[in-house]
């Protein structure tokens, strides 16, 4: 038969060439005279099942029954009845004989007997799966008998097939017919094709052809008997050979035995209605049946029931047959998440089950659903995705991340919830390596620039850590323009000690990207200042960093003297770091009030940010003196040492966030143009800040070269040369350096204080010899003579 079908597909058939399906290999068993083949669609290659039945002429009884089965299968629809797709009838001539073949195309299925052997389930798992399958077939039979008033006529193991999701489906409708019990005058067979049914599957009234008794019986009498035969074949592990074998109940579960005996009652009127069998709670209520039943009616459940169910599902899934979980429960779970009927905890269960799949199956069965979930507006879903991004991030391709995932994730950078901003930030550790350079430089760095001045200290700190971790994915030009400015101008001057420590760690981790000039002129001067930091951990890190960078310079110097040619970086001078830099906030031990993380997630899901913000709050409220000192340092100590010349741009972060903006003022930090919200200054600095806001004379853009101060030509009078003027606040008590060590006359380009100094006092006398711009006309000499004369006469 298989060779014949192969020939037909090859083109020898008259009408099969129009069948839009390809016929594949056959299954070893099928119901009745049918042959069951694997198949695929010619359009998209999707799998199907193809059933074929052949006869010698068009009047063959098997063909008539087959046509009845096609008609019934086409018109009867139920979730537990085989889905019909297509059918055709082909007549072929082979010499003097002709053959007629009926083809039925259905959803892809395989015989139940073959699937049971393939699964190889044992003990409790086998019984739970059988309970699930019997529940599905019983619903199908009950639908036919009670709702449609139809009689299947041959319910048995061979009439059941299994889908790829392990659902049981009823088919073999060749014998199916209407129940005409109300027609008392009828005397012929109620089932015209009952001769197709084996004697061992027939109840006694059918064996005797007592159709009067059949018509007086309930509609379910015949199929209840068949359902009992199915139960016997399932638990005995063999096909029914003769009716007497049904009395052997050794393998029947005790909870099912009473119903099994009622299904096989010798009196048709006393046989158990198939719908009543579904009410057997003791047998059908197990973990597998309850789980799948809950998911089938998920839309009818309220949010509390859903939340409770999905939180328990990961643990329940571990106790169920692995094959059933992956082929049945996992697709249901993915579908419920994709169409919005599941809640956020379902994502945890989905990823738990997905971890049991191979990498290829995960990309096919789970990843498409996850990618679609990134577009969800449900905050709980977004939080759950970001919390578990490390479990699926590696499976996503760069194109998917860049085009479908990142645009939705990036909205979290500006979210009003600090918790969501931090989760979005941490997710970049997984997603950033898959982003294109255009997205990294044009979008991500802009968001990170804003997060480095975030109101939450934990976010500022971890932003610095993230920059250090993704530095290797930036191109060389971006690294030159961004890293030093981000770590020195922003991180090292942060008022939060862990943020300063993170800046030092990030500089050390990226030390191989800097040349000797950058290390000597831009990095070391900023780190050395932190060796006198108020925080002991910051000081310790600063000393370590100074030693590390000095070692780099020393080794490069020795190479240069030895005539070696090599890279100017310090790759050989630094021990390689073990993996990525850890999130800085995970090691804080300060105590304080945790930030209120209200409705986004459970309290157990966000320990990192809560602890980080707790420490930030403590630093701001319990130690104001430390905070003020850091503010003073950022306004004086660092300004006292202007940035030395560098081959790189000094406004790297500003270029990224605000496009390239030439001619920025020298007091900008080079990270962006938005002012950083500083803490309220100490009273001693209020007059200085007021003086900073007063208009000053225009000057050319300040250069980055270090001014040369000549103290030998300092003037002798403090009040005449004081750059702060009469409005300046008194100097701090701890300041021992006099302000009169400046040159008497300096240009704005040479004066490092020019950017913040107050204008000179307006009461200062000006020489009368200075002109007013009307030429070089000298003053009239008679004015001086008259004043001398008056003075002489007075004497």
Q: Which terms would index this structure?
A:
about 800 residues; alpha+beta; five-stranded antiparallel β-sheet; three-stranded antiparallel β-sheet; elongated; disordered C terminus
What spatial order of strands do you see in the largest sheet? 1-2-3-5-4
Oligomer: single chain
Q: What's the total number of strands? A: 10
Distance linking N and C termini? 146 Å
Helix content: 40-55%
* Biggest β-sheet strands, sense, barrel: 5 strands, antiparallel
Strand portion? 5-15%
Explain how this protein is built.
The protein is an alpha+beta fold. Helices cover 46% and strands 7% of the residues. It contains 32 helices and 10 strands. The strands form 3 sheets. Strands 1-2-3-5-4 form a 5-stranded antiparallel beta sheet, with helices on both faces. Strands 6-8-9 form a 3-stranded antiparallel beta sheet. Strand 8 and strand 9 form a beta hairpin. Helix 4 packs antiparallel against helix 7 (221-236) and helix 24 (497-509) packs parallel to helix 26. It is elongated. It starts with a helix and ends with a helix. This is Protein kinase domain-containing protein.
Question: In summary, what is this structure?
Answer:
This is Protein kinase domain-containing protein. The protein is an alpha+beta fold and about 800 residues long. The strands form three sheets. A five-stranded antiparallel beta sheet has the order 1-2-3-5-4, sandwiched between helices.
